Every structure is written in C-alpha cells, then in structure tokens.
Amino acid sequence: MQVHEPGPFADTPTQRAADRRKFRRAINVTLATVLLLLAIYFGVQPHLNLAAWTVAPHSTQSLLGLLTAPLLHGSVEHVMANCIALCILLPLTLMVYPRATLRGLPLMWLGSGLGAWLLGTPGTHHLGASGVAHGLLFLVMTIGLIRRDRPSIAAALIAFLFYGGMLLTVLPQEAGVSWQSHLGGAIGGVLAGVLLRNSDPRPPRRRYAFEDESEPDDPQAPIRFPGSDPR
Fold it and tell me: Cβ distance 56 to 69 under 8 Å?
C-alpha cells in the first residue's frame, strides 16, 4: 500500500527551534489579545457610550459595531469567560494553522457581527468576543475534517474536548446570550476552514518500520512472523 507523504519526518535542531518560535509567537499573540480585551474593559469601556459601539440589529447606524463589538463586554464574568476561551483556542489554532488563522480572522470577526446584525431582534445590542471564539473552534473542526492528518485530528479533538459545547450554542438556548453572533462567527470559521485549508503546509509524517515491509509476491503464501520457523 502506498501512502502519500509530504516528506520524511525531520526531528532536527533546526526544526525544533522553528517549533519553539511558533509556540512563542502563538503565546505572545494570545497574551496580547487577552490583555487588550482586559485593558479595554477596565480602562476604556467605562468612558464609552456602549450603544454607539455595539451591534444593533438592522440599524445602519450600528455598522461600525461590526468592527468594535467583539472588543467590548457586558460584565467581568463575560470578559473573563471569553478570555479563557481565547487562551485555549487561539494558541491551538496559531500553532497548527498560523496562516489560516490570521487570514481567516476577518471572516470570523465580521461574521460574528453580521450574524447579530441580520438575525438579532431589533432594539437589542450585541457585544463580546464569543462569536470569534466560536469561529476558531469551527475553523479547527472544519480543517480537521477536510485534511485528516494527525496534527489536524489532534487539534480538533483538543478543541472539542474543551469547548465541544459550542457546537450547540449556535442555536437559541439561554436568554441574553447572543446565539446570532455565535452562529455568524461559526459560519465564518467554516468558510475560513474550507477556503484556507491548504494555507499551511501539511506536516511531515513519521513512517514506521512495518509500513516499509513489502507484501509477498504470492498472495497464497503463508504469513511469516519474526522468529518463526520457516519450514
């Protein structure tokens, strides 16, 4: 049986150094994002008129909220919950799919706002980064289903282990929770996963010794195990 591989597995000092740089970059981006959200909530948001910066469904005057609403939160519990989700999902996606994540972020960001703007109830206001977090989860799940290499499957399983419940929160469940922005972010994540699935190169796969054993020419030949008597 032939297996398509990107190339031989190379566990070299150069490769390990590149992996460490990727890990540090993912952690730095995540920390910067979380600190930005906390700084806005505690330092900037108390001085803002929130209604002007959030998404108000069907209101053309709130279109600016498509860009600003994910940066704002309604309570300490709200901002902390989203920060925790981003601390898990963002470094995971940046480690496995750095290019797809950065290129797909606009789709998830705008998708979150558009979902709230199109599907929300007029007179309400939507804010928070939970739609973006949903987009990251659905990005990982979509690419994992399409690519099905080992890192993709592992990343999808880790994301599902921590936040598999997000697969259900794209539907109406709890009053006061913007399922519309969750759905919009999730759709953005799926689109990003489909469109950008090959943005990051597939990692080399380790090939094991048993895969190199040739099949016998005679299909009727008895199977021999190592150490068995050939007679």
Answer: no
